[in-house]
Amino acid sequence: MTQDHHAQPAVLDCEQYRAYIAPLGLSRKQEDELLRDLWAITETLVDQCFTSPTYPQQFAIATHAFRALDDAVAVESQKQQINEAARHKEEL
Fold this sequence. Notes:
The protein is an all-alpha fold. It has one domain (about 15-90). Helix content is about 70%, strand content about 0%. The chain contains three helices and no strands. The protein has helices at about 15-20, 30-50, 55-90. Helix 1 (about 15-20) crosses helix 2 (about 30-50) and helix 2 (about 30-50) runs antiparallel to helix 3. The radius of gyration is 19 Å and the shape is elongated. The relative contact order is 0.10.
């Protein structure tokens, strides 16, 4: 007896990831677009990781893009914290 063990494709749930990019201050539509683009990049990398001879270069480019996004989120988060601290200080 043979069983079919095909994995179900992962489905993007924007709500699951929205909090990670919230510091960027994007509109909901922009957040959705960014998350869909990142999801597509990730899916492509997974699909090609064993078959594409250019995978290492593609992975390096994608890694750079994800790090840049991570840095942008960190900067915006830090700006928000500084602004909140300044407002709190003014209130005292």
